[in-house]
Design a protein that fits this description.
about 230 residues, mainly alpha, 11 helices, about 80% helix
Length: about 230
């Protein structure tokens, strides 16, 4: 059983991964729902450009995203220096930066899941609510949002799972600092570079697979149960 016991470093990496993923998803949820609604319901010049920009992290190498974050939000970056001077917020080389990198990489999955759910809502239901005097904001929060909750849950879980597995953008933006930015994938990478680290690497690999599978199963189950609940 000794081979299954996590070391202190591995436990720290697991806790940090869960913490970083939680804030990555929680911080990007409002913007993700807003962008999904904009893409699903509005037509405007540059919509294709916005859609491509949101989904860019899916096709760009993660290292490129990490480098762009470093240039933009590093301590001497255009926005990073402004954030540091004005609000005392520093993202580079700490867990906040790891959460930002994970949020950027997981954002397209969240937007895609919510957008598909919004596009599946019967527009006639929203139109009926408007004929009864409800404004656009009230219709969104009382009609649209409850109907797309399964899609939001799916997007949340998929984004959480993607955040847990984030590697390239994180190591480029915030490096691999034990106890500060060393998440599960980074700890696994470190173990593969150490003599005798194979057992620890296999433990973290299995944990990653179990968490990812649990997230996918939970996503599907929650979406089905909530959809059945709404249908009555």
């Amino acid at each position: 059983m000794q081979g299954w016991t996590l070391s202190t470093v591995e436990i720290e990496a697991l806790k940090l991964s869960l913490w970083v993923s939680f804030w990555a998803v929680a911080g990007s949820l409002p913007l993700g729902v807003l962008m999904a609604w904009v893409l699903a319901r509005l037509d405007f010049p540059g919509k294709s450009l916005l859609d491509g920009f949101i989904h860019l992290p899916l096709v760009l190498p993660p290292v490129v995203i990490g480098y762009l974050l470093l240039v933009g939000f590093g301590r001497r970056g255009v926005l990073g220096a402004w954030l540091h001077d004005l609000a005392g917020i520093t993202l580079a080389f700490n867990w906040k930066g790891a959460a930002a990198a994970a949020a950027v990489m997981a954002f397209p999955l969240m937007v895609r899941a919510v957008r598909l759910s919004i596009e599946g809502v019967d527009r006639g239901v929203e139109a009926a609510a408007r004929t009864l005097g409800a404004g656009p904001v009230r219709v969104f929060f009382t009609v649209t949002l409850p109907l797309v909750t399964p899609g939001i849950l799916t997007g949340l879980i998929l984004a959480f799972a993607r955040s847990l597995g984030e590697f390239g953008a994180t190591i480029t933006f915030v490096s691999n600092i034990k106890g500060e930015t060393q998440t599960l994938p980074l700890a696994l990478y470190t173990l593969t570079q150490m003599p005798g680290g194979e057992v620890g690497a296999m433990r973290l690999c299995l944990i990653s697979v179990v968490i990812a599978m649990a997230a996918l199963v939970a996503s599907e189950g929650l979406a089905r149960r909530f959809a059945a609940y709404i249908r009555g």
